[in-house]
Specification:
This protein is about 50% helix and about 10% strand. The chain has about 375 residues and is an alpha/beta fold. The strands form two sheets. It has a six-stranded mixed sheet, with helices on both faces. Strand 4 and strand 5 form a beta hairpin. About 10% of the residues have low confidence. It binds 2-acetamido-2-deoxy-beta-D-glucopyranose (4 copies). One 2-acetamido-2-deoxy-beta-D-glucopyranose binds next to helix 10. Keywords: Membrane, Transmembrane, Transmembrane helix. GO terms for molecular function: acetyltransferase activity. One of its GO terms (cellular component) is membrane.
Length: about 375
């Protein structure tokens, strides 16, 4: 019996340590597949052996599920624990004190819980490795455009970025690029309203062609042009339904979906770009100042929670919390009280990439 227990402990260690050990590692998709495969085999062997050793069955399943899943959830929930350092740049003067005259940098807080997650700012080669062969779709309004810009800036050099920036910022248009070196395709889809995002996801479903990473968000246009939070809420619920029907394993369907551990299903990673902090007095038109008030912003936020589209309320999308990032960076990080300086979106992109790392290593 001692032998059985030791074997059980060994199996538990492998199951727990393989995914945890991968946490600091940058994996391309192929490597990810390899390690999910290795993990799957380990699990399968474990599952087949454990019936012969009933005393360790509970132990193995409890340890593996609790430790791995909890560790993953905790780290995902800590991803936005960042601090900013905003200082006057050399060109600063009281007459020249725009946001561009402040240097800003950010980093994850050094609390022990956050350090334990070993978040890291991915370098260009890390990010290229992670996204090698992927199809990334970023859809939404100007906030989404800044996310697309930040992601491309991480992957390409500044010479390439000059021309891309021009094309990407053509008003209200879509943009597509294939980064040949890493075979990554990125689509930016201009989709100012939630209904546009719903149309987009229905299109993926119709064509049975899904991106690997889907990043989307909307709200500002609706707030400005409709100023009706409950209508926004209705549109979010439609989007949620559409995304849920897209995903092979949805939170609601659970056991109806493919059985975990059977043929692996490829499921897109879906992110929500939250609205930024709005600084009413800095907004650049009368209509914006009138309609995009703090109260309206609060009502839109409540609808977002209520729609259950976000992971934190049981939905499928992981929030990139631009509000918290922009709030913490502060008034010196924006010129118009709505669009923030590039570092805010860079932070959001790094948070997204870290979430992808966590999810791809520890998905069982
Ligand atoms: C920023 O500049 C304005 C004038 O452009 C001035 O009134 C204000 O005091 C300056 N603020 C700081 C913090 O220097
Ligand atoms: C991307 O993957 C391909 C094939 O797996 C490989 O040949 C190439 O070197 C990779 N590129 C990068 C930048 O990792
Ligand atoms: C987005 O949706 C609105 C309202 O449903 C529609 O008028 C507009 O044409 C759509 N825009 C795009 C780019 O699909
Ligand atoms: C707001 O939207 C809801 C739902 O679409 C609609 O029933 C209501 O009449 C709208 N309110 C206003 C003031 O337009």
């Amino acid at each position: 019996m001692l032998g059985a227990l030791q074997l059980g402990v060994l199996a538990a260690c492998v199951v727990v340590l393989v995914p945890m050990g991968m946490a600091g590692w940058h994996l391309s998709r192929n490597k990810m597949l390899f390690f999910s495969g290795a993990l799957f085999i380990t699990l399968a062997v474990g599952v087949h052996l454990t019936p012969y050793f009933p005393s360790v069955t509970d132990f193995v399943s409890t340890v593996s599920s609790v430790v791995v899943i909890d560790n993953r959830r905790t780290c995902i929930s800590l991803l936005h624990d960042v601090v900013w350092d905003v200082t006057k740049s050399p060109g600063f003067s009281t007459l020249n004190n725009n946001s561009v005259n402040y240097d800003k940098s950010w980093g994850w807080t050094s609390s022990s819980r956050v350090s334990a997650c070993e978040f890291q700012k991915l370098s260009r080669s890390d990010a290229s490795d992670l996204l090698n062969g992927s199809w990334v779709v970023v859809a939404g309004d100007s906030q989404a455009r800044f996310i697309a810009l930040s992601l491309l800036s991480l992957l390409l050099d500044s010479k390439d970025m000059e021309s891309i920036r021009g094309d990407l910022f053509k008003r209200h248009s879509d943009y597509q690029i294939v980064v040949d070196e890493i075979g990554m395709r990125l689509d930016f889809i201009w989709a100012p309203y939630t209904s546009n995002l719903t149309d987009l996801t229905m299109g993926f479903k119709r064509n049975r062609n899904y991106p690997d990473v889907l990043v989307m968000g909307s709200g500002l246009w609706h707030m400005l042009h409709f100023t009706n939070a409950s209508d926004y809420g209705v549109s979010l619920q439609l989007l949620r339904d559409s995304v849920v029907s897209l995903l092979p394993i949805s939170p609601e369907r659970g056991t109806d979906g493919p059985v975990a551990g059977s043929v692996p299903v490829r499921s897109p990673h879906v992110f929500w770009i939250g609205m930024p902090t709005l600084i009413n007095s800095m907004l650049n038109t009368e209509a914006k100042r009138e309609r995009m008030t703090d109260a309206m912003r609060g009502a839109y936020d409540r609808q977002l929670q209520k729609s259950k589209i976000l992971r934190q309320s049981g939905g499928p999308l992981l929030m990139l919390d631009i509000e918290s990032l922009s709030w913490n960076c502060g008034v010196r990080c924006t010129v118009d009280g709505m669009h923030y300086d590039v570092p805010v979106y860079e932070a959001a992109v790094q948070i997204m990439l870290n979430a992808l790392l966590i999810e791809s290593h520890q998905k069982l």
